[in-house]
Amino acid sequence: MTRGIYRFSFKFLSAFVGIILLGSLPGLFNGLSINPAGYIESVKGMFGTLFTIGELKYRAGQEEYFLFPHILEPLQYSLIVLLGALLLAFILGLFFTFITMMLPRKGKKGFKLFAFLFESLPDVFIIALAQIGIIWFYKKTDILLLDVAAYDKTYALPILILAILPTVFFYRIMLLVFEEEMQKQYIDLAKTKGLNRQVILMVHVFRNTLIGIFYHSKSIIWFTLSNLFILEYVFNLRGIVMFIFEHPTPEIFTISFILLFIPLFILLALWQLLAEKVSKEEAIV
């Protein structure tokens, strides 16, 4: 238990300091020249800002507003879209994996080929295709699924669009680890005891592959986060990314990323603990 606390604390502090160092980078440059002393002062100033974060303001038009609690609204919207897309992608990836594992060999090849081809498409292309699809649907039905000029928050469509590629990634990873797990000896033992394939997959294989899924899910989460930046910009969603674009200061950039990082770190930590507990195996991160 103590080892786990130290491990998570070290990872959290390392990432926290890394975000501050990244957010302070503008202080490294003085025109076209590099200014190390200026960067050190910028880092010190950024740490100082965190201690007086309640007094930080931003400008909107001719008015100034306190950063808190105004930043929490776009942050909440972005987190709902991001976490909703990840949850949907995980469920769909698991569902398609179970379906594929129940198919004969020829059916599996077809699913794998489709997933491979779809995975090779650039993420920007998927988002652009979704935008074109919305415009086409509007022209055909006069129903606007997503108004990029509106300030009303929509959730279902952004979550669906953002979940497309993560679903394919989860599916490919789950299918790979499931097939590897099905080659192990205990699967033959389970079959001799009369357990059907559905029970073996849903109970034994899924439980024993959680650690493998966890290893790959971290990269999927950060990939989905990067796609969220593109999605918010292209569709003019009023999330944390647009807030950063509209108020591009090092302080707002740094604080926004810290606020995004904390819930994602907690999510990964809980996911790791769950995977370790269920599979009875410690994940090495």
Q: How would the blueprint of this fold be written?
A:
Layout lengths: L1 H22 L5 E2 L2 E2 L1 H16 L5 E4 L2 E4 H4 L1 H31 L2 H15 L3 H19 L14 H7 L1 H18 L3 H8 L4 H12 L1 H26 L4 H7 L3 H30 L6
Antiparallel strand pairs: 1-2, 3-4
Supply the number of helical segments: 13
- Tell me the distance between the termini: 16 Å
Number of strands: 4
Largest sheet: 2 strands, antiparallel
CATH architectural arrangement of the largest domain? Orthogonal Bundle
How are the strands ordered across the major sheet?
1-2
CATH class of the largest domain: Mainly Alpha
User: Would you tell me which CATH topology of the largest domain applies?
Assistant: MetI-like fold
- Residue runs with pLDDT of under 50 for 5 or more positions: none
Q: How would the global form be characterised?
A: globular
Beta-strand content? under 5%
Number of self-contained structural domains: 2
Q: List the secondary-structure elements in sequence, H or E.
A: HEEHEEHHHHHHHHHHH
- The CATH fourth-level homologous superfamily of the largest domain: MetI-like
Helix residue percentage = over 70%
Q: What is the structural class?
A: mainly alpha
| Average of the residue pLDDT scores | 84
The Cα radius of gyration reads: 23 Å
Structure overview:
The structure is a single chain. The protein has 285 residues and is mainly alpha-helical. The chain has two domains: 50 residues; 209 residues, MetI-like (MetI-like fold, Orthogonal Bundle), CATH 1.10.3720. Helix content is 75%, strand content 4%. The longest helix is centred in the N-terminal third of the chain and has 31 residues. The two termini are 16 Å apart. InterPro entries: MetI-like, MetI-like_sf. It holds the Pfam family BPD_transp_1. Belongs to the binding-protein-dependent transport system permease family.
